[in-house]
Input
Amino acid sequence: MNYTAPPEQQRRTDLLRALGHAVRTRRSQLGLTMRTLAERAGVSERFLAQLETGEGNISVVRLQDVAEALGTTASYLLDAQVEERPVARKVVALLGVRGAGKSTLGPEVARRLGVGFFELDALVAREASMPLSTIFEIHGEAWFRRLERDVLRRFLDEHQGAVLATGGAIVTNEQTYALLRERATTVWLRASAQDHWDRVVRQGDVRPMNNRANAMSELKSLLRARKPLYALADHVVDTSSSSLDDAAARVVSAVAESKRSRGR
Output
């Protein structure tokens, strides 16, 4: 007599197997050994083996640890169709002056690529254990730029697939920008000066115009000065007249084109 598992138990089994397959596939795509992933995620190799075979019932917190170690998100790993989604084989670095849309567009691009979203400034602040403003006040810009480059290099070493929002001035540091262009797919999110201005204001930040009658002229000058540097990016996506969905689609399309070109 054949035994048939109850529907609820079967759904649970299917879910765990799909999750295990997603983790195993993602690990293979990134070229990670089980030991390396286990160390990064803070779990045992035995537990990871059980997870990948669909035998381990992982907690939400532990799943997020594993997802971050894989440069992605827990929701991505829970998607049974993970193998059909585009995978960013390199870090996608978003460039642009503040207000370009990096923090808004970045998470949506990351979701579509099935990878994690990170902000370089936040990673630097976490490394230094202090806000960026304090770093500049205590240590100065030169110290910050060295730390930024070190954090970026380590991030690129540890993530073969991610979306990274960079600081607006990163392109002005020759060494750091060269490192980024060499090891990441760079995308300049271009926008008009007025769009930069309006987006920052909509975020509730009125500092750009406080006691500065020439603030808009200064912004336009900054954009002109940095334009040649931003133009060195692999791709340019204009976000001035684009919806979030449209801009995200064009970034993902550009990343896919980069992958095809490297494959030829």
